[in-house]
Structures are given as C-alpha cells and as structure tokens.
Amino acid sequence: MSKEEIKKRIEEIEQEMTLPGFWSNKDEAQKTIKELNSLKDEFSGVDPYDKGEAVLTILAGAGGDDAEDFAGMLLNMYLKFIEKKNWSYFLLHKNENDHGGYRNVTIEICAKGSYGILKNESGVHRLVRVSPFNAKQQRHTSFAMVEVIPKFEEVGDIELSDDELEVDFAKSGGPGGQNVNKRETAVRITHIPSKISVHVDSERSQGQNREKAMQLLRGKIYKALKDAKVKEKEELYVSKTTEIEWGNQIRSYVIHPYKMVKDHRTGLELRDPDSVFEGNIEEFLEAEKDFK
Predict the structure, then answer these.
(1) Together in a domain, 54 and 148
(2) Using CA of residue 107, residue 108, residue 113, residue 116, what is the dihedral sign?
(3) pLDDT value for 230
(4) CB atoms within 10 A of CB 22
(5) In which domain, by residue range, is 189 found?
(6) Angle 265-74-139 from CA coordinates, rounded to 5°
(7) 96/80 same-domain check
(8) What is the pLDDT of residue 88?
(9) What is the DSSP string of 242-260?
(10) DSSP character at residue 252
(11) Same domain assignment for residues 209 and 226
(12) pLDDT value at position 284?
C-alpha cells in the first residue's frame, strides 16, 4: 500500500474503534488493533517483523574443514551474544562434521526484537588465519554464510499453496549419520517456484517438524522477496543465492598476519577478534542500524 492508502486505513480503523460495540467481539477487536499497530509501524518506516523473533542459519562455504570450523566459531559467537542478552534459543537442524564444525546449522532465537537486532548480520563472513588443519601451518581463508530471517507466527503472513511445495520425509540423524529415531520425522520442504528449501528435525513428531519447517520457509521467502524487491503476477522471482566466496563478504575476521575484524559495509574496524568471537558484537550491530 502507498503512504496515502496506509494513512486512510489507519483513519478508518481509528473511526471503527469509536463505534459502540467495537469490543463486543474481543477476538476481532484484537485483530483490528494488531492491524492498526502494524500499519502505524509501516507508515513510520519500521519493518513490522523487526519486533519479532528470528531464525539464524550458518552455512559453511569455500574452505573445506576450515570453513566448517569457521561456521562453528560463528555459531559459538552468536550463542554467547544470545546468552549475554538473556535470550533463549533452540536448535532446529544441524549437519555437524567429526571435529565440531558445521556444514550448516539453524537455530530459532526466542526473543522479541531479535530479528530487528540481528537481521543485518545476513551475508558472507570471511576468516583469515593459520589453518589448524594444515600441517604446513599456512595461512588460509575460509567463508561462511549467515542468514537471519523472521520467525513467522501466522500462516497468512506469506501465502503458500500446496501445489507449490515438495515435501520429503526422512529419519532424523545424529553426528556421523547415526539414526536417532527409527520413524521418518525429519522434514524437508522445497518451494518449487523459488527453489528455496528448509530442513527441520528438532521436534519429535513429523507434524511438528512440518509446522516448524513451514514457518521457516515463509521467513526465507519473505527475506528473498525483500532482497529481490520483485513480485510480478503472483509469481516469485528470487535473486540467486549469494556465492559464499571471495568478493562477497560483508565482514572479515583476520587472526593472522594481524588481528582485526572489519565490517565492509559500515567500515567499522575492531582490533580484538578474540573479544568479537566471545559474543561482543554490539558495536557492529549498532553501526549496522542505518545499513539498507
């Protein structure tokens, strides 16, 4: 809606609220008030999902074992930040290697406002260090992708029809591929038009995993649409996934030959990567607030 249309709808709702009987149906009244608050946020330029919870995914990119180890380092960094904020979280899915690194891992952050705070962490992160996996002790560069999406509470936020979805079920697995559940409770859902897919195996039942996967899928599609800013004839046109490699990074963590963490969008540099990996990322988050 345009600014004029939003303003008109706000005025209509405010007029409705003055009528006798507005509160006679409490559920409808609460729904209307929620719409009003959302419209006011949109009118003032606030992303309505900023106030909600977040889902954070880390995917290892170029760099082999080093990249998977780096993904683990980033996960630990965010978990320490979450702990400092007294937020809670739970694991949705992980694909862990044999030495504590991750090919990919997804967590749900259960804290109001967490999406707004962390959304600009999305992008490619780069690590430069002496590789602990190289006997020659050579300097190595590795990459990982961080993706932060809003947690969708309501089905109607992003409409998905069944014929757009491909749903697969599998046995939940632990490290090393060992089955931890004989039933096929893990769920993978692919949105066919955009090729976006999600995988959830955290819940005990197939139905719960499917519900969680649908929430996650809506968040991914929302972010893809927001990034692409294109929607024509009710078909999704989503930009290609950013390559997780050199040249696309939003932030670099350098441990060797010098120590520095630099955000390439804001230009902010900190000289203590050890502190950053301990979850002290507030300065970056503050600098990112004006980033579009």
Answers:
(1) yes
(2) positive
(3) 35
(4) 13
(5) 159-236
(6) 80
(7) yes
(8) 96
(9) PPSSTT-EEEEEE-SSS-E
(10) E
(11) yes
(12) 97
Q: Do residues 140 and 55 both lie within one domain? A: yes
* DSSP annotation of 113: T
**Cα→Cα distances 286→77, 83, 120, 121, 187, Å:** 17, 18, 10, 11, 36
What CATH number has the domain bearing residue 184? 3.30.160.20
Question: Does residue 224 sit in the same domain as residue 87?
Answer: no
For residues 188 and 148, membership in a common domain is answered with no
The backbone torsions φ and ψ at residue 288, rounded to the nearest 5 degrees and listed phi first, read: -75, -15
Q: Are residues 115 and 202 in the same domain?
A: no
Which amino acid is residue 283, in one-letter code? E
* Count of structural domains within the chain: 3
Asked if 149 and 222 touch (Cβ cutoff 8 Å), the reply is: yes
pLDDT computed for residue 243 by the predictor = 64
pLDDT for res 249: 92
Closest CA to 175 of 249, 268, 267, 91: 91
- Provide the 3-class DSSP secondary structure of residue 102: strand
pTM (2 decimals)? 0.72
**Three-state secondary-structure class, residue 15:** helix
User: In CATH, what number is assigned to the domain containing residue 123?
Assistant: 3.30.70.1660
Residue 133 sits at φ, ψ, to 5 deg, of: -105, 5
Divide the 292 residues of the chain into consecutive groups of 10 and give the mean pLDDT of each group.
Answer: 86 90 87 85 75 93 91 98 96 92 95 94 95 87 94 67 89 49 77 89 86 87 68 38 68 96 96 98 91 61
pLDDT for 233: 32
**Residue 101: which of 136, 133, 129 has the closest Cα?**
133
Whether residues 146 and 283 fall in one domain? yes
Angstrom distance (rounded) from CA 43 to CA 278: 38
